[in-house]
Specification:
alpha+beta, outer membrane lipoprotein receptor (LolB), chain A, 2 domains, twelve-stranded antiparallel β-sheet, two-stranded antiparallel ribbon, 4 helices, 16% helix, globular, LppX_LprAFG lipoprotein, LolA/LolB/LppX, membrane, EF_Hand_1_Ca_BS
């Protein structure tokens, strides 16, 4: 076998193994056949995001972080929340930071279960009423009102260049840029007054959403902010109980 044929065969085997289709230059876009909802053998960016939402709807729980490096001029805002969200029953256990009623708070332990939120303040957990602009984190996996709805409500979706990433640089990650209507973002932060937001969703080669970066006006008079959701793990099982 000639050197040229050997090299061509190696390329064919590699691309078949990784499930890629080649594009111009060095760009590649992963092809996830499971996301082909209409069976036309073509996977559109919209189908990729719909598939990613389905995976979030199906999971037992996720470990994630919601954060922003921006600081709006607002009496109540969430700067960071990280922890575990379970789907059935809806619950959250983790930590949150931000400004509530004008007072800053960092790494406050939060438990949300059975429709009630508890915060560890002054050394002990107590009932906590969330500010109106801060969502109950236990509900963020709800298929109808959770944050994944931004994936299927997204418009003008375009696929970017796939690149390697992840903790060990062993994942193939593809960014998808989109415009998200304000009504969908309000499932994430209820007070968001913006009419539309610019988003970048990063999806791995298994069709799982890994990050969502959303930019727009989340708070009245606060200017544009960028919130990032990073999902570290799927199918998390954790018994979260009242503290």
């Amino acid at each position: 076998m000639s050197l040229r044929r050997t090299a061509a065969l190696a390329v064919l085997v590699l691309t078949s193994t990784l499930g890629f289709t080649g594009c111009s230059g060095d760009e590649t876009t992963p092809t996830n056949s499971a996301a082909d909802a209409d069976g036309d053998d073509k996977v559109t960016p919209e189908e990729v995001l719909a598939f990613a939402k389905g995976k979030l709807d199906e999971t037992s729980g996720v470990e994630l972080t919601l954060s922003t490096d921006d600081a709006p001029d607002s009496e109540a805002y969430l700067s960071k929340a990280s922890g575990v969200i379970t789907a059935d029953p809806p619950a959250f256990q983790g930590k949150a930071s931000g400004t509530f009623e004008g007072l800053p708070a960092s790494d406050v332990e939060i438990v949300s279960v059975d429709g009630k939120v508890y915060a560890k303040l002054f050394g002990a957990f107590q009932d906590f009423k969330l500010p109106k602009c801060v969502p109950d984190p236990a509900g963020l996996l709800d298929p109808d009102t959770g944050f994944a709805t931004v994936l299927t409500d997204a418009e003008e979706v375009q696929a970017g260049k796939a690149e390697r990433g992840g903790a060990d640089n062993d994942e193939i990650l593809t960014p998808y840029t989109a415009v998200v209507p304000g009504a969908a973002v309000q499932n994430l932060l209820p007070c968001a007054p913006g009419d539309e937001f610019v988003a970048t969703f990063t999806v791995d080669d298994e069709g799982l959403l890994r990050t969502a970066e959303i930019k727009g006006q989340f708070f009245e008079g606060g200017g544009d902010l960028t919130y990032t959701i990073a999902i570290a793990d799927y199918d998390v099982d954790k018994a979260i109980t009242k503290p």
